[in-house]
Amino acid sequence: MKQIAEPARANGIAAVALALLACAAPRSWAEDGPRIAFGGVTRDFANSIYVITPEGDGLEELTDHGDWASYPEWSRDGSRIAFDYSDGALPTRIYRMNADGSNQKPMSYGPWDTGATWSPQEDAIAFGSARDGSHRQGVYTADFHRGGGGLRISGGTYAKFPSWSPAGDVIAYASDRAGSVDIHTMDRLGRHLAQLTDGPDYYTEPSWHPRGEAIAFESWDEGNRSDVYTMAPDGADQRRLTVHPASDTDPTWSPIGTQILFTSDRDGDHGLFIMELDGRIVRKVTDDRFMYIEGSSWFDPDFPRSVSPIGRHAATWGWLKRLRASAP
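Above: the chain sequence. Below: its structure as tokens.
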């Protein structure tokens, strides 16, 4: 894996930093259009991070083929990607890299860290971790201004799959704190808890709408089949979007919030699909070289995710232009 720096360790002696450098040059990527990052498992059982256009063109592999990398997440400005990584000898940690795959470095140092989500200010990440043991899966935050070590914020119950709201005040996540696995919310310190779903199914993988107007999530029934749903930020107005006999999972909003990217095995192998908010399938993004998809994230430079006044103005204007262009 190219340009990976192992974390510094201090055991009463001077900290030592290890850097692994590879000879491969950084991959290029045209940054003038929308792109999707995803974790793809190919037929030779290699897990890598790839980027592709929403139309399924321009596929590029960003991590070295054969390493284990998955669950990418674009930073708010699209300059970096956080992802899960393991070299096979160590458990997964959260790493980051530039948008072209260069400068890969660790962001978390605990074992079994997975599924990062950036804070809107990009000063922290939230992620799931089993660093306290497999039966103590929880949600942690790593504040970069405080060393990024990781602080558990989800209490003592099972918790995973955090998703940070665009405003930065709420983190949605899956937890069994009420007995069954449901979608909950909390602030970045683990306070102001609220339960959004309550039913017989297994609710998980929440994803915030880019303007905070809704949450997409997946629901598993007793037959071990999943569908994609949306709901209001307070849990109201829950709507089922997919009804296919296959399992549809891991929803991710498009940058302007008018479509949803999701994973499905509806045509045999797992692939990435795009659908409208009424459940109508627009297209399949990936081809049959992938056996399985492990996480995805959609970025568009015309619609950067930001909470700054300037960023909000630019994002809103870009969204209005896109809607006007797509109007009949």
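The radius of gyration is 19 Å.
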